[in-house]
Amino acid sequence: MAVIMDGKSLAAKIKAQIRKQVDSLAIKPGLAVIIVGEDPASKIYVKGKINDCKECGIAGFEFVLPHTTPQSEILNLISQLNERDDVHGIICQLPLPRGIDQKSVMQAISPAKDVDSFHYENLGKTVSGNYGFLPCTPAGVMELLNHYGVEIGGKHAVVVNRSLIVGKPLAMMLLNANATVTICHSQTKNIPHMVSQADIVVTAVGRQNFITSDMVKPGAVVVDVSIIRREDGKLCGDVDFGPVSEIASHITPVPGSVGPMTRAMLMKNTLLSANGGLVG
Ligand code: GUN
What are the tens digits of pLDDT across the range 229-267? Predict the structure, then answer.
């Protein structure tokens, strides 16, 4: 039976440490969270982030805009927030409504306040290993692996996702930690074969039972980034958890592992920004 990597309790510990550090600062860190439109999942995520702010002693400024908001208005708000001294981090919850150019919005956030680390300047730092703000989900996965003593150097990591938010930066961070990395995507031939070669599997596909026990090498470490709402309303990930946990050495449950770690990393980046920010 695999070790269950409990990101929920690790995130709670990290947030408690952040709270202590925040309380010792002369200023109160502030995080601005912009949400455009009525996507139900986004509303739940934003509520969670604002709650995390409260727990950590960070001021959470929520900006709720209707789905009809013109792009120019979003860019205007971001440029005001870029100037505000009480705002140290800015995030714009994705997805944005159709018609809004996500790339322009993300690149409008000042790299110095880009606590999601979506700006190309910050992405470049992550690729180079010259770390500044780390992208939250990849950073959460790396902290979880480190906390549970998972060896990364020399291991074969297979990342089943190539997004700019998860797969690409995580692959670079694993590579910087000396893993041999394979990225799989929708055009990859024979993903089950690729996954079966992995010492560490990270999946973020969004399909229930995408990773089954016949694909997983005995003793592999399995990290599930996906959160899928099933028809019965329950949440699950990509991994067929029961059978895979019988053969993996370590595994993350969904919900309650990578999600809380992602949010804890957002708080960590906001503290970092308020605490003098990044050098260089
Ligand atoms: N939508 C899904 N995940 C994220 C995230 O990490 N940050 C933002 N801003 N939007 C998201």
Answer: 999 999 999 999 999 999 999 999 999 999 999 999 999
Cβ-based neighbours of 86, under 8 Å, separated by 6 or more: 28, 30, 59
Catalytic residue among 6, 93, 114, 268, which? Answer: 93
Write out pLDDT tens, residues 81-98: 999 999 999 999 999 999
Q: Dmax over Cα atoms in the chain, in whole Å?
A: 55
Give the number of other Cβ atoms within 10 Å of residue 21's Cβ. 16
43 annotated active-site: no
pTM higher than the cut 0.90: yes
Report the C-alpha gap between 142 and 211 in whole angstroms: 20
Q: How far is the CA of 188 from the centre of ligand 1 (A)?
A: 25
Ligand 1 centroid, distance to 95 Cα (angstroms): 8
Residue 54 appears among annotated catalytic residues? no
Calpha distance 280→272 (Å, rounded): 14
Which SS3 state, helix, strand or coil, does residue 185 take? coil
